[in-house]
Amino acid sequence: MKKTLGIIGGVGPLATMYLGESVVRRTLASKDQEHIPMLISNNPHIPDRTAYILGESAENPVPVMIRDALKLVGMGAEVLAMPCNTAHSFYEQLQEALPVPLLHMVNETANEAKREGATRTGILATDGTLKTRVYQKACAEAGLMPIVPRADIQELVMSVIYKNVKAGEPVNAENWQKIDAYMRGAGCEKVLLGCTELSIVYKELALSDRYIDSSVVLAERAIEACGYEVKNKRLSLDY
């Protein structure tokens, strides 16, 4: 049975559009009418998830995300996807409040690394995501050894996320080379891009298939959950 996809977006805005594009580009379709009906809420006013988790903000993002999700359901969404890895720290709260399934981006990404034969798996994500250990737990449950960056490398990751992508600036390639070198040196067979802003890096810098883009994984699982077929798995979105 074919279903309508709802995207709880704005977290961040560019990552939301990247997910929508990924769904369209990876759906096996030969004409407009064979694509997935999508409803997108691109609300940039959802409070910052990392700041809330780290205690730097008292603004709870969960009620706003639930409100946006319910709006999508009210408009006909039957499957929900949320292009924000950090927000999956609140997954149980969100799913309990929703009458339709919310795909678990983090678990699906870890499972993809397992399917691709990884054992030592790097995690690149926000400070908030790493603090909640949502990716570390997902990797452990999938039988993977999670590897996180040391402090100085994590600072570079946060700089790429906040000072480059979220600020609408080009990715600092020199900083990314340092991140990449560290993860290679740590023996990571696969590296999970556990932040949707890093999905933009994946596209902008044309990263190798050693990287697993959580947005691409989410797009593929969303296509399948809506009853459609995936094409061009894990390929670049370059035009």
UniProtKB/TrEMBL annotation:
Alphabetically ordered keywords of this record: Isomerase
UniProt keyword Flavoprotein, yes or no: no
GO terms, molecular function: amino-acid racemase activity
Cell division recorded as keyword: no
Pfam families tied to this protein: Asp_Glu_race (PF01177)
InterPro entries found in the cross-reference section: Asp/Glu/hydantoin_racemase, Asp/Glu_race, Asp/Glu_racemase_AS_1, Asp/Glu_racemase_AS_2, Asp_race
Recorded family membership: Belongs to the aspartate/glutamate racemases family.
Entries under NCBIfam families matching the protein: asp_race
Protein name in the entry: Aspartate racemase
Organism, as annotated: Planococcus lenghuensis
